[in-house]
Amino acid sequence: MVKQTKFYDPTTAPYLDPKKDRRVVFITGGNSGIGWYTCLHLYLHGYIVYVGGRTESKVVKAIDEIKAEARERQNRHFGELNYVYIDLTDLSTVPKAVETFGSKENKLDVLINNAGIMGVPYEETKDGYEIQYQVNFVSHLLLTLKMIPYLQAAAHPRIVNLASVGHNSEFKYFHPKNHYLKHFPNSVYTWIRYGKSKCSQIQSAKALAKHFPEILSVSVHPGIIVGTELYDHWRNIPGLKFVGNGVIGTMGKLMGVSNEEGSLATLKAAMDPELTLKDNGNYYVTGGILGSPSSVASKQSNVEETWKWNIEQLDKRGYHFDF
Q1: Does the keyword Oxidoreductase apply (predicted)?
Q2: How many structural domains does the chain have?
Q3: 243 part of a folded domain
Q4: What is the enclosing helix (H) or strand (E) of 26?
Q5: CA-wise closest residue to 41 among 52, 57, 27
Q6: pLDDT of the residue at 250
Q7: In a domain, 129, yes or no
């Protein structure tokens, strides 16, 4: 198991009374895995949390379970948990989710781009992107840009992009127009596509730090967490699921952390008062420890090209921005 002595302790973060200090969070994929525990701790700390997801019944069920767990853990001022519909495979739902949010709030303190998929078969979305690239990165980029006015209205806004150590599988820089990587065998190239999407999340945080220096934007690698739904595809492939489960189980025993431990890097980025704008663009690894992403993710020309191309592509699809 990963050593935990240096992991961020969320109990050291301030506990808020939402009636006196209303701080608002929007998170994607908060109904399962590390997102569930991220929501739990934010709720325990008094944050007003909007959980974006595709299936209302799943999110509402998760909200009820989080509230029950919170009552078991403490008796303080809890925050709020609210559902907002968003489908990251459909870009058109993103502005609508922001509109729904804006009908209820006039500012956003923390945006957590948490949801993701991993290692899935090749597929293109209705918007014309490879599915991992859109779900993990492009939809979150659009969400972030649409949320900028609400973030700018907050006193100390933050953006947290969920990346992964898997970003290293983008072993060289592939121009974003070549993100499809539809090659044989899929079992190899799906991981390169996944790495490309997560590398882009790191580059996005760095670009946001440059273009919006008043907003703290960081990326995080939560850790090797085998208890999430990310591995479901590999657990259920006919003829391979027993091997897949064995490999995944071994990874968990040797390197893995729990879902709750996996939420700690995100929680540090979202709540730690010691983080300031001097930390803009940083990358944090398991437990919230400062890390160093790959040279592909860090190279400034790559960061700028990823930003430029994706903004242009969103503009071509009718999503315009005033910057």
Answers
A1: yes
A2: 1
A3: no
A4: strand 24-28
A5: 27
A6: 33
A7: yes
Residue of 146, 196, 198, 206 marked catalytic: 198
Catalytic hit among 47, 194, 283, 284:
194
Q: Of the candidates 290, 301, 28, 13, which has an alpha carbon nearest to the alpha carbon of residue 146?
A: 28
Q: Is 50 a catalytic residue?
A: no
Which stretch of DSSP H or E encloses residue 201?
Answer: helix 186-211
Instruction: Identify whether 4 is part of a domain.
Output: no
State which residues form the domain around 153. 18-226+260-316
CATH number of the domain at 202, please.
Answer: 3.40.50.720
Give residue 64's pLDDT. 98
Q: What is the predicted pLDDT for the residue at 228?
A: 57
Please list the ranges in the chain whose pLDDT falls under 50: 1-3, 232-237, 239-254
CA count, 13 A, side-chain hemisphere, 217: 23
User: Cα–Cα distance between 319 and 311 in angstroms, integer?
Assistant: 9
Confidence (pLDDT) at 4: 61
- Residue 6 domain-assigned (yes or no): no
Q: For residue 256, what pLDDT is reported?
A: 76
Q: Which residue's entry shows tokens 């008043």?
A: 214
Per residue, the 3-state secondary structure of 74-89, as one string, reads CCCCCCEEEEEECCCC
Q: Which amino acid is at 20?
A: K
Would you give the end-to-end CA distance of the chain in angstroms?
A: 45
CA atoms within 13 A on the CB side of 154: 22
Note whether 215 and 208 are within 8 A (CB). Answer: yes
Using CA atoms, how far apart are residues 173 and 183, in angstroms rounded to an integer? Answer: 17
Q: Is 198 a catalytic residue?
A: yes
- List Cα–Cα distances, 162 to 54, 105, 147, 187, in angstroms: 18, 24, 17, 23
